[in-house]
Structure formats: structure tokens, C-alpha cells
Amino acid sequence: MKKIKILMLANYPIVEPRHGGQLRTFHIREEYARAGIDVDLVSFFQEGGYQYYESTDIPLPGTLSVVINKDFDYAVYDYLSALHVAQDPVIYDKLASQIRNGGYDYVQLEQPYFWPVLKKILASESLGSAAPRVIFSSQNIEYEMKEEVLHKIKAPQDYVSLVKDSIRQIEIELVNSAHITFAVSEQDRIKLQELGGRNDVVLLPNGVGKLQVDPQSVEGWRGIVPKEPFATYISSAHLPNAVGFFSSLGNSLAFLPPDRKMVVAGGVCQLIERSEEFNKWSSINRSRSILFGPVDNIGVAALRKFTHVFVLPITTGGGSNIKTAEALVTGAYVLGTSTAFRGFEHFANEAGVYIEDDPQAFRSRLVSLLSLAPNRLTEESRIRREGLLWENTLKEISKVVVKDFNAR
Fold it and tell me: Coil, strand or helix: which one is 16?
């Protein structure tokens, strides 16, 4: 029997997966490989944005050929990058040639942005019955998320409307055209079905991976993290992550007792440190926080082991947050917003899990949790949380693709 072959297109490389989109894409590719499906992946990303990437990945210039408003285009680089590729004859022809000659059964889009490029290629190439089918691997309702972000950074309304309407149309067309569409949450599944006028969108939840690290190296972090109970926020340099941090925790960390600290790790540290909000109360904020920046897997494993409370101040966007799954499997206290628990609602009543949408209640709850003894999981709860491992959340993906392939 012919082996299925898939080309995945993404907005980021996955050589060293850190943020949620990278992790999901990485583990989807791994799950396909376990099922004997051949996968090639090409990512398009801003040059200098990632240190490690494959030779098949394609860095794009910081200044794209498509400009709407240079003051706000940074917030929609992923959307504009696809429009840039569609107009760049060298990059476009390279991708078109790969699709034309690669013998792919499917092209899978991680997020919707490269649909205009793929649609143009499929329409212009003489592929006939050999044309690959399309898989839409949605990670969010992107037009809604971009609208929220652009409002937060005070983009002009005509700019917001233009971008929102364009991305919405891309998502509608893609759901209509894809043979298979995956959603990360039940809410997104319903929304995508409404957008596409179909009822067969497949729920494929986010999960968490096991970290294979040296226990002794992890133990070495005990002298790096605070000795007193501390809270941790791990997140990427995705603008909504910083917006949520300040929305839930405020501009000043003065509400924390002097001997309790907020530890922040990941690319979000850059956004926080450069922000007007953080620097307005710099002395207080720095005395009550440790901003590690990006950390390796050993650092992540150490934070999972030593953290007393994981905070998930997610206030914008759809989809579901991988950091929620990561926090839940640690067994530590987890404090998040209802947005952070989208897709993980069935854990909302677990012991040690708290959901607060009011910023003052969020801060008060955090102070309270930092004064408690460490959370302890029951064996039943531990087993339930193991269901969040990627090997469990993604186990249906290959079955769905194989079933579609055999029905051709």
C-alpha cells in the first residue's frame, strides 16, 4: 500500500520547539511519523526570529513587500508574510515546484495564513487528479484574536477592520476548501463549523510533552529559584501574553508580600521588560520578580518541579493554551482565567485549580495560594492529568487522515 505523504506549512521552525504553536506542530509531525506517514515541513518566519531552523525552512525579511501601516504591521507579521510570499517570485516558485513535484497526498496548513499562497499554487499548476488535498490544522480563531490584539495596541479602526475582515475571509475559504479541518477546542470546533457551513470539523486537543532531562541538572536549579514559595508564568514573545500579564496582575507587583516572587520565563520577558507598565514601577516590580528569559528544557523541568503556583493570565484569543496543560500535569496550584482554561474546562473543579477573571480577585487569590502548603494530587487526579500527554490528545489524527485517504 502506498505510504501517505504530507507537506506541512508553518509560520515558525520546529527544530527547537518552545512556544505553543511550535510544540503542537512538532508533536503532530511526530504522531504522523509513528503512524508511518511521510512528512516534509517548510516554515516561513522573520529572519533573526529563531536561532535554529532546517535548511528547508525559509527566513523572510523584517520589512515585507506588503505594507499596510508600518506602525502596527509587526502585530500581523504572520498574515502579511503569506502575502509577501505570494508576490515574491523566487520563494513562490520554489514552493510551487515542491508541491508540483513532491508527490504529496496532502498539504497541511498550521494556521490559516498561507491559504492564499496554496490556493494560488493549486489553481495555477496542472496537477489534475494528482493535486494534494488540503488539511487545515487550526490553532485559533485568528481573525478574532488579531482584532483583540490590534485594539489593545490602539491600532486605527480602519486598520483593524481591514485586517480582521481579510483574515476572516481566509478562514472561511479554508474551512470550505479543506478536506479535513482540526480544531483545538470545542468552542473553536463549533465556530469553524459555523464559518464553513459544515459539521465534520475534528476536535484535536492540545497537550503536553514529557521532558527527557537529567534529574541532577534539574536539581541544580534549586539554588537558582527562590527558596520561599513562588509563582511562575512561562510564555512566549506573543503580544497577547504580555497583555494578559498586565491585565491580570496590574502594572505593579506591590500586592505580593516582600518575600514572595513572580518568576517569569520565556520570550514574554522581553515584552514585559520593555513595557511602559513594568518600567513605571520598575523598582517594586524588579524586587518582586525574576525574569529568566528563554530557558532550556532543564530550566522548564526545574520550574515544573519547584513552582508553588503556576499563573495563566490569558485574557485574549481563542484556541486553547498549551501552558495550561503543562501547568496541570505538574500537580502545583494552577491559577488562571476562564480564557486560559478554554479546552480544559473539565479540569476546572480539580483540587488546587482556581479560575479568576476579575484582576483584583486574581491577585488576591495568588497571595492566598502562596501562603498555603504545597498542593497534593490524588492518584485519580494524576491519572486524569496524564490524559493531557500529546500521545493521548493526538492519537486520533493519523486515523482521520488514513480514513480520508482510503476513501479517495
Answer: coil
